[in-house]
Write a structure and sequence with these properties.
Elements (H helix, E strand, L loop, with lengths): L5 H10 L1 H4 L7 H21 L5 H19 L3 E7 L6 E6 L7 E5 L7 H23 L6 E7 L14 H7 L8 E5 L11 E2 L1
Parallel strand pairs: 3-4
Antiparallel strand pairs: 1-2, 2-4, 3-5, 5-6
Length: 197
């Protein structure tokens, strides 16, 4: 993509948004543009489908939620959009992850999904970025955050209190509800641990 002219890049995005949006090595701005186009295409295709399966209806609901979240803040970027697997996967960012000196990525754990989680996590990462800017100083463009629901999170598992051995076997795989902040070496604000909980 880096070797293409702007017109060639636009044509590639328009013709193959499903490929460009999740392609490694493509700049974040182009990925976001492609994924937003892919989102619109999928919504239109599913809405016009006459006989929707339960899977189609679930996917359409998730796509509408992504669209709703993006429309809630014009500064949100859509870094990933992947309908494969059990559930829709997506990653929403704010700030330029390619150029920012400090990027925080929030990766939630078991039981998360687009419909129930994306809006809150996008808003949370926006707040995290504000705190990073306030505490770290510098320019706003130095900071970016990502709400990463770009993987198949395990569904929540309910374990009765009497099943303590089973509970102990599952605990090592549980993901704590914390936001881990990655900063560039040597650029972490003084006094900050790099972990927000």
């Amino acid at each position: 993509m880096a070797l293409l002219s702007e017109d060639e890049k636009k044509r590639m995005i328009q013709e193959h948004p499903d490929v460009i949006g999740n392609l490694d090595g493509v700049d974040a701005a182009s990925r976001s543009t492609a994924n937003k186009q892919y989102l619109e295409n999928m919504i239109n295709e599913l809405e016009q489908k006459p006989d929707k399966s339960d899977k189609d209806r679930e996917l359409l609901s998730e796509l509408h939620k992504v669209d709703e979240v993006l429309n809630s803040n014009k500064n949100y970027n859509l870094l990933t959009l992947d309908p494969s697997g059990d559930r829709l996967k997506a990653a929403v960012s704010i700030g330029d992850v390619d150029k920012a000196a400090h990027v925080a990525t929030f990766v939630p754990g078991r039981g998360t999904n687009i419909n129930d989680s994306l809006a809150d996590y996008a808003a949370s990462t926006d707040n995290i970025r504000d705190k990073m800017i306030h505490n770290g100083g510098g320019k706003q463009s130095d900071y970016a955050t990502v709400a990463w629901l770009g993987y198949d999170a395990r569904r929540a598992v309910l374990i009765p209190p009497s099943s303590e051995p089973a509970r102990r076997r599952l605990e090592p795989t549980a993901c704590p509800p914390s936001a881990k902040v990655s900063t560039s070496p040597g650029k972490q604000p003084a006094g900050r641990t790099g972990i927000l909980t």
